[in-house]
Write a structure and sequence with these properties.
The chain is an alpha/beta fold and 441 residues long. The protein is 37% helix and 21% strand. The chain contains 13 helices and 21 strands. It has a 6-stranded mixed β-sheet with strand order 3-2-7-19-20-21, with no helix packed on it. The structure holds zinc ion (ZN).
Length: 441
Amino acid sequence: MTKPRLVFQSSLLLVLVMLHGLISAAQTQPQPATQHAILLHAARLLDVKNGSVVKPGEVLVLGERIVEVGSAVKHPAGVEVIDLGDQTLLPGLIDAHVHLFLHPGEEDLQTVQESVPQRTISATLAARDDLMAGFTAERDMGTEGAGSADTAVRDAINEGRIPGPRLRICGNAIDILGGHEDAIGYNPEQHVLPNATHANNAPELVAVIRQQVKEGADFIKIYETGTDSVRNGKLSTNYQYTEAELSAAVQEAARVGRRVAVHAMGEPGTLYAAQAGVASIDHANQLSEETMRLMREKQIFAVPTFTVFEYFADQPAKYFGDPTAPAVQRMRQMLDLHQREFRKQIAAGVPLAVGSDVGPFPHGTQAREFVLMVKYGMPPRAVMQADLINGAKLLGWDGQIGGLEPGYFADVIAVPGDPLQDISVLGNVSFVMKGGVIYKK
Ligand SMILES: [Zn+2]
């Protein structure tokens, strides 16, 4: 334990020096989008709505917005032309399930050992890594014990003081006493704090939601199920809140224009969440026919987060010490069950968004999620539409991001190859523009 900690501390120093540099740069040269026109040209352009590729592709950008898109757009006098050559232009990617405040390593230990300021510095670097990998918008699904520290990260990004995706944030997730994210297994006399905020009934949910909104939350995250086990291909998981309690939370959030997202792996918690009218059911490993029907009817998104399950299943030595450990077997069984259920969810027309649960695995590597969704039965075109069109809706930026359209934010990336032919090219982003500002070229 000592060695990695030392390495981390020395890298922290480096980080502080780098952050200082960034902040001084931002102070001396403010970073809003330039007001001169920029024209992006490339061999191909992804038309997300039609699920087709336009050849060649051009995007005209003025300030933070897109002005014109097509094969040949107007070239105003004095326009700065950026020719990206044999690449595909596409909208910035959306990750609907991230944890900027987590990094690889023992999840429960890092939240106990690292201070909130330390974790906030790490979160700013995670935000930068995600942006450089092409993710220009993200929904952060909980700081895991850093409270509303994500408010400062979101605001610093919005002010152009640090690089990062546009963020929707929720502060801490909410959980019952002794629930899925409580600090179980420690000496009770040490009073180790949970990674989530306790609420045990509807009035407590309402009070916590009011506090979180006060502190800057854009949406509310609730743990609805856990702990989980898989036996004979069937998932068993405890629910945490009743349908009535979740409805009270959804209603209170709606009163102040917020929505609720739940961590929910299976029944009956997933059904309660769908009945209550949440915005998304994250993980969604096993859904009943009735739950899938309600999700279709109410347009509730399932966010499968395959990458985190694969990562845990593939990292037995690191996390569990022994490849035959029951926890490893459980992860493999869970992934197997989930990919089978995912095919049923696609067939049933459940609305899907793309979220990786990055944090427990390295930030900036989460394009793996696209590859896994294709591997488990979704055509690349449908995966792109789930990510960009559904993701924009889920994050509340419908008509603003997720497409290369006039009037949209100029969130544009480029990749070699054609993602509709080979989705894995999304792991190799060569150009990143967010709100008209170029971050990677
Ligand atoms: Zn998560």
